[in-house]
């Protein structure tokens, strides 16, 4: 098997996650979820803006 730096980084990150627990992963998931909700609301609500000319 040839050396792949991306695979080595992924393996190292997985072993670090096992040692630290799920706190970091949970934080990332929550931040992505909040940003996704804000972007979804912005996309949906901007369609309701009306120009009263």
Q: How is this structure best described in words?
A:
The chain has helices at 5-20, 23-46. It has 53 residues and is mostly helical. The chain has a domain at 21-48. The model has no long low-confidence stretch (mean pLDDT 78). Keywords: Membrane, Transmembrane, Transmembrane helix. The chain crosses the membrane at residues 24-45.
Overall, the morphology is elongated
Major sheet size, sense and barrel closure? none
Helices and strands, in order, run as HH
Structure class: mainly alpha
Mean pLDDT: 78
Count of strand segments? 0
Task: Indicate the proportion of strand residues.
Answer: under 5%
Rg of Cα set: 20 Å
Helix content: over 70%
> Which stretches are poorly predicted, pLDDT < 50 over at least 5 residues?
none
- For the terminal residues, how far apart are their CA atoms? 67 Å
**Tally of separate helices:** 2
Secondary structure: elements and pairs:
Layout: H1 5-20, H2 23-46
Keywords: Membrane, Transmembrane, Transmembrane helix
Transmembrane segments: 24-45
Short description:
The protein has 53 residues and is mainly α.
Features:
single chain; 53 residues; 75% helix; transmembrane; membrane; transmembrane helix
């Amino acid at each position: 098997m040839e050396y792949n730096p991306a695979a080595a980084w992924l393996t190292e990150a997985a072993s670090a996650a096992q040692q630290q627990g799920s706190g970091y992963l949970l934080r990332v998931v929550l931040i992505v979820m909040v940003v996704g909700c804000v972007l979804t609301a912005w996309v949906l609500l901007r369609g309701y803006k009306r120009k009263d000319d």
